Amino acid sequence: MRIFATIRLALRALRRNKMRSMLTMLGIIIGVGSVIAAVSITTGATKQVEDKVSALGQNVITVFSGSFTGGAMRGGWGSAPTLTVGDALAIAQVPGVEAVSPEVRDRNQILANGLNWNTLILGESPDYPQIRNWNMATGSMFADADVRSVAKVAVIGKTVADQLFPDSDPVGQTLRIRDIPFKIVGVLEAKGFNLFGQDQDDTVIIPYTSHMKRVSRRTFVNSIQLQATSADNITKIQQDISEAMLLRHRGEQDFTVRTQLELAQAMTATAKVMSVLLAAIASVSLIVGGIGIMNIMLVSVTERTREIGIRMAVGARGGDILIQFLVEAVTLSLIGGLIGIGLGVGASQIVSSLTDWPTLTPVSWIVIASFSSGLVGIISGFYPAWKASKLDPIEALRYE
Amino acid sequence: MQTNPVIRLVELSKTYHTGEVDVHAVRSVSLEILPGEFVAVMGSSGSGKSTLMNTVGCLDRPTGGSYRLDGIDVSTLDRDALADIRNEKIGFVFQGFNLLSRTSALENVEMPMLYNRSRIPAHEQRERALKALEICGLANRADHHPSQLSGGQQQRVAIARALVNRPALLLADEPTGNLDTQTSIEIMGVFQKLNDAGISIVMVTHELDIARYTKRNLIMRDGKVISDKLVENRLVAEVELNRLREAQQAVKLA
Lengths: 400, 254
What we know:
The complex is a heterodimer of chains A (400) and B (254). With 400 residues, chain A is an alpha+beta fold. Chain A folds into two domains: 3-52 and 268-398, no CATH class; 83-253, no CATH class. Chain A contains 13 helices and twelve strands. In chain A, the strands form two sheets. Chain A has a six-stranded mixed β-barrel with strand order 4-5-10-7-9-8. The two termini of chain A are 27 Å apart. Chain B has 254 residues and is α/β, with parallel strands linked by helices. Chain B has one domain: P-loop containing nucleotide triphosphate hydrolases (Rossmann fold). Chain B has eight helices and ten strands. Chain B has helices spanning 49-56, 79-89, 105-114, 122-135, 151-163, 181-196, 208-211, 237-253, and strands at residues 7-18, 21-33, 38-42, 64-69, 72-73, 90-93, 169-173, 200-204, 216-221, 224-230. Chain B has a six-stranded mixed sheet with strand order 6-7-8-3-9-10, sandwiched between helices. In chain B, strands 2-1-4-5 form a four-stranded antiparallel sheet, covered by helices on one side. In chain B, α3 packs parallel to α5 (151-163), α4 crosses α5 (151-163) and α5 (151-163) runs parallel beside α6 (181-196). Chain B is globular and about 60 Å long. The model of chain B has no long low-confidence stretch (mean pLDDT 91). Classes of the chains: A alpha+beta (400), B alpha/beta (254).
């Protein structure tokens, strides 16, 4: 029997009982619809988190100094003065490392333009904007020569620029840190808040040599930021760095090496749990929808016993009858699934426009939803269709 | 010239095992029906004629003996093979018409071709269905649904459906049972026309006057054929219809 003829037959049979077909589909529609809507909303949220993580920079690895221990007090990662500029230079030699910036951080009151402001002063290398994937709005980043010459130059974030220079272009002007004048050579683009709610634009970046010699007067760096050439070998590079560092630190593990990947994984773990939960709810709702379809198909087979008898009498094989009812069940569930997808996408769009939550419907879930609603049709339609195909034509013809 | 029989039953029997008692519905019936024959099978209820028809119609398998339909031994075929035989070799006409409701006459007639093992193109299906309806005198009602047709018209659709796969044998089970006298004669006229064109017909009926339109009458009792006679003074539907109309005319004039 031709498949198109069978599908036409199924559609006609479903049209005959429009109300019943609609109600039968409702289970699948609601199930698929709610799953698609929920997936769209969680995927949107996950995407937002991922965007924030990638805003930290591409393939970033951070080396923190070890824990400072004074008497019984332990200071936590980054508190011990164990990392040096030499470490950073050694790390730069590790294959696969593209850019390195030793980082010194300190909070200080700064003065400029007759105004003052308390902000984070970062000592970095000229590679820093590249590592953080951070472009300049105006002016330019200081150069390696500035690092070598311990130059009094600074690049400032958007917030600092707004606070200290509300009416003028900061580039070329001077700001004072601990009464030392620094010439502003550039302003960074706005980056917004990071994952922890800190304003990333509220910062002043100066060469790390200048920071260590002029501002904080430290001999150690807080951390080393670096960028790997690609995400594929990031774990290998992480290991290589650890080994190089261990060698330099005479086998003492007084540092930690973290990748951005680990952070991203931690951040999206919640979303993964949500996805699993959604899949569980989805399967329950699809089972409920499937039971509805099976129920109606059984009723339909009983109602149409005579039709089945007639078809068998004129030469329909059991298999023909099986396929006819199976196609009917699959059509029912597939149409339900497609309507559900449409409603789910629509609902998430509405949520998105009402609440400013970003929503995103992944194509994979549309495929999964269509596929599983079709599967539900096959599973729930099989028993009724099999029952129909096993009818005795004589009995079926006599059925009133 | 030796012609192969359409139906050849040898010692055919059908026994139902229901509980403790075995019911012998058909007891070793031997029978030959040649191409072009028009046979009426008669008998009271329980005489085994329905069982015989179901077996001859390949809806059921015999429990004993052999059955050759159009030269094929069908007594050993499985369900699917029997379905194919029904599709290709047999056309069924039932007492209750058994048309699919909410489906046009044309689509009803096309239906058996849907199950034909050799694929028939859609346009050919349509042509053949229209041709069959035309033969049965219903070409102008092809788009009507069964509920829009009279009993006689519905039976004509059913006959067209039976014809559409060009069967070797037409099986009719009380085809006039639900029809009034005049319509019954009209339907018998259709059968006679088809038979004249060479189609073999076997028909179950309990109406003696209907049986007189056929060529050969079988009478069954207790699962056996007790009488097998050729019909003398065979009625011709056209003549009888004219006679009926004249009688009606006379009543109106009086």
